[in-house]
Amino acid sequence: MHVTKLEVDLMKDGIVGIHDLIIEKSGGQKGIHDIGGLEHAIFSILSIDNKYERPLYVAAKVYYMLATRHYFFDGNKRTAHITAKTLLYLFSGRHLKVHYKQSVGFIISIADKKRTIKTIEEWIRTNSETGSRTLITDLESELKEMEEIG
Questions:
Q1: This prediction's pTM
Q2: What pLDDT score was predicted for residue 56?
Q3: In terms of residue numbers, what domain contains 81?
Q4: DSSP secondary structure string for all residues of 70-117
Q5: Please, are residues 115 and 72 in contact by the beta-carbon 8 Å criterion?
Q6: Parallel, antiparallel or unpaired: strands 128-130 and 94-96
Q7: Residue 145: which H helix or E strand, with range?
Q8: Roughly what angle, to the nearest 10 degrees, separates helices 5-26 and 76-92?
Q9: Are 139 and 85 contacting, i.e. CB atoms less than 8 angstroms apart?
Q10: Helix or strand holding residue 128 (H, E)
């Protein structure tokens, strides 16, 4: 599949926007530590064949790539969670039911490379359902929770 620079840049802008909002709401150091790595990760995600037929795999790969590498100075795991949750919803209408607070231990195990993309995909399957909430309502709730955690 051919991925354009524009597609990478648009997704990068979205992920950086998510990151900046998370840092603003819940604290931490703003900024990108490895822009080239982030662009490569986005290219890899956008290069997945049949993305719309494999949304759980896409979300699992997002979790893995954003949580295991440090593209940002801070907030990598939080950014991985919100980005994966958003793409899962946009590609399939599925809602990841677990919030960051309930999933932080699992996400840390991803960051520590104790999970494979396959096990992350299974976790997403177990913890998601089709169309139970709107994305915006859920993300507002997530950000409020992250702000409380600090």
A1: 0.89
A2: 96
A3: 5-149
A4: --BSS-HHHHHHHHHHHHHHHHH-EEE---HHHHHHHHHHHHTT-S-H
A5: no
A6: antiparallel
A7: helix 135-149
A8: 120
A9: yes
A10: strand 128-130
Are 68 and 37 a contacting pair, CB within 8 Å?
Answer: no
d(CA 124, CA 94): 10
Residues in the chain, overall count: 150
Predicted confidence at residue 133, as pLDDT, reads 64
Q: How far apart are the first and last CA of the chain?
A: 40
Distances from the Cα of 95 to the Cα of 23, 63, 75, 111, angstroms: 23, 15, 22, 22
Quick one: which of 98, 56, 57 has its CA closest to 81? 98
Give how many domains the chain has, as a whole number: 1
CATH code of the domain containing 107: 1.20.120.1870
What is the DSSP code string of 105-121?
Answer: HHHHHHHTT-S-HHHHH
pLDDT (tens digit, 9 = 90+) per residue, 51-85? Answer: 888 999 999 999 999 999 999 999 999 999 999 99
